[in-house]
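Hi V.,

You were right to ask for the full record rather than a summary. Here it is.
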Amino acid sequence: MQITGDCLFPGWFSAYFVPFIHRNNAIVVAPNYRFVPEHSGADILEDLSDFWTWFNKGSVSDFLASHRKGGGIELDYEKTLVSGESAG
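Predicted structure:
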């Protein structure tokens, strides 16, 4: 298996995005998924479908609850921004 990148690499975030995150005290959830040409478009769509299933069943809140350090972090599901770039 070859790993070509990670969603936490700062250079892969749009220039406006990091200041936006800080200004709005936002939580970033950045899913990893398989890239072409090693994988098909169907593989990528399957990965994104799995992410949305995980997200919509409240797993982000479960993850945040398991990593609390002296304060409660809550995700406001009513204020969700979805952003993306080309990964093909």
